[in-house]
Amino acid sequence: MPRPLCGYGPGANRDGCPLHALVDAHKLAQDDGAQMLLAVGGPAVLRMFEITGADRVLLHFPGVAGALTHLATARAPGPPG
Predict the structure, then answer these.
(1) What percent of the chain shows pLDDT beyond 70?
(2) How far apart are CA 28 and CA 79, in angstroms?
(3) Which of the four pLDDT bands, split at 50, 70 and 90, describes residue 33?
(4) Do 42 and 9 meet the contact criterion of CB atoms below 8 Å apart?
(5) Residues 62, 40: contact at Cβ < 8 Å?
(6) Cβ–Cβ contacts within 10 Å for residue 51, how many?
(7) Is the dihedral of CA 4, 65, 61, 46 positive or negative?
(8) Of 28, 41, 54, 65, which is most buried with the most CB atoms under 10 A?
(9) Is the per-residue pLDDT at 54 higher than 50?
């Protein structure tokens, strides 16, 4: 399953437009059977996600390293069945 990875850091615009675009991209990814991962770059961004409820919609991680770790774990082959 494809997993687009997006970053949203402390320098991002706080007017809500980028957040709406991320939610729209998340919905498009789901429609295509994909899962979008979001690397959150700082407590202010995470707080904005909490206030808006986006933290309950978007799969987010503390930075790119956290998202990449999730990808590596999700792609790891399981035990033979």
Answers:
(1) 70
(2) 32
(3) confident
(4) yes
(5) yes
(6) 9
(7) negative
(8) 54
(9) yes
Whole-number Å distance between alpha carbons of 46 and 59: 12
pTM above 0.70, yes or no: no
Q: What is the pLDDT of residue 81?
A: 43
Return the residue matching tokens 């998202």: 67
Residue 39: both structure tokens together: 């690397």
Domain spans, the chain: 5-74
Beta bridge partners of 8: 40
Distance (Å, rounded) from C-alpha 38 to C-alpha 56?
A: 12
**DSSP count for the chain of H helices, then E strands:** 3, 3
Structure-token match 């996600």, residue found: 49
> Cβ(34)–Cβ(55) under 8 Å?
no
